[in-house]
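Reopening this one. Same input as before:
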Amino acid sequence: MAILKVARLGNPVLLRPAEDIQPADVPGARIQRLIDDMIVTMRDERGVGLAAPQVHESLRLFVMDPGGSEEEGGGLRVVVNPVLSFPGDDVQELWEGCLSIPGIRGRTERHFRVAVESLDRQGNEQRFELEGFPAAVVQHETDHLDGILFFHRMPDLDALSFEEELARFRPDEDDEDEGDGESQGAAD
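Same output, byte for byte:
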């Protein structure tokens, strides 16, 4: 397993829609190696999620591990070709970060509850629902597959901050983060 280079803001791979993976290709050596490398990279970067475009692979695949128990939506998940739906109208506001945009956080709005239909690591169909922070992580990672960055989900760009400034000037808000690539905040 290898730690992969993470694409950073400005790389065109982050702004284009990714390609579906054929179900028969999921169990193959190439995709399995990519999944393993993405898991190692996500953990090395202290992230809670990582999408394939972030490691220069324009494929509809992400891995996530938002922490917490399985009952809370935690634990490692591999998600291939996700289709999201949103049961309910509840939204949540949270500070998000991204491994592709290190050191920056932004206040976003996400659906509180999400239903996911996708393929699992073996290429089998899977369906699950998440709420709260894990739901936000799924939405963040799926956005990467659509060429969307968390900036696009910010209702107010005044709520954009370097992590150090957020901790210094808004210490109470920094605690409620969701982390994508970082452990505090939503992100990959």
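So the earlier flakiness isn't reproducible anymore. For the record, Strands lie at 49-51, 61-64, 77-85, 91-98, 101-111, 113-119, 125-131, 160-162.
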